Amino acid sequence: MARKKSTFLRGARILPPRVQGDMTAAQLVDEVFSAYNAARLREAARLLSKKMLADKVTVGMSITGALTPGGYGLSCLIPLVEAGFVDWVVSTGANLYHDLHFGLGMSIHHGSPFVSDVELRRDGVIRIYDIFFDYSVLLDTDAFVREVIAAEEFQGPMSSAEFHHRLGGYVAERERVLGTGGHSFLAACFRCGVPVYTSSPGDSSIGMNVAANALVGSKLLIDPNADVNETAAIVYGAKKAGGKSAVWILGGGSPKNFMLQTEPQIQEVLGLDERGHDYFIQVTDARPDTGGLSGATPSEAVSWGKIDPDQLPDTVVVYTDATIALPLLTAHALANRAPRKLKRLYDRRAKLLDRLRKDYRARLKKQG
Fold it and tell me: What is the count of structural domains for the chain?
């Protein structure tokens, strides 16, 4: 008597095609990435293309690790923003600072991690693993930032999104003058109305230059309260308008937490009815068992109210280097999804914040 086939064997048979030289990146992901972390990357790519990039989904991206100095702002992040695939961003300040080098037409070079850093220091060369650039790149970028933020429009408190939008406008103008064709991620976000936040404004060379100007009378202040409320308002507005919220996390760290804490801010602190983000993709090399936020899983995030428990099947963690996964996910998304209409959330911040404020005040009034 034939034994009944196990329900565990319902998955598709592993029988990939032979790799061909003319295969696209999207084909490799869909047809060849058949097991282990390659299969998790395939799951993430399909979740991104089939569900997260639907028109009524608001996609937030958090960015850590030295991606922009490696050229990933130009190769991947700008195409994603311009295609309408990323609606709002939380980034380390360092990624935004090093992005400025590209917008200002400065040179970043391939190098080797196996050289003497003492000799590099003697030659005035800065190293980020296998990326080299001249020390003057830092000095010239610093000078540009200090000159720009000394302008009258920067004299006062503002959210980091407003600060980066204004700074991005100056970078976009410099790109126009230089004729570089759009090398800056921050300038692309300015043009596309994508708000860019940083969870630690003082923890980068941009923040250091803001602090330096404060010593000589600048009134510029990055308001963390505005950042917390604006990001929560973006997520709350997306869900209350009948849409969904998705998070795409590159790495971990403070930007990951800042993006995910929007839901506890809505539910726990403001006491408004919500269930968590609907879709979750993370690319990380951090382990969950060390207790760090960078390695925390989507299921753990459910206990905090960050992820909707009913949506756990639509969460994927890819354990690999973001410099490997990001180009593949970008290629797969661009191959399988038409560009979306830009949501221009930066332009809608005040309206979204008004809705959050109104509902919070109504809740307080009802509570008495």
Answer: 1
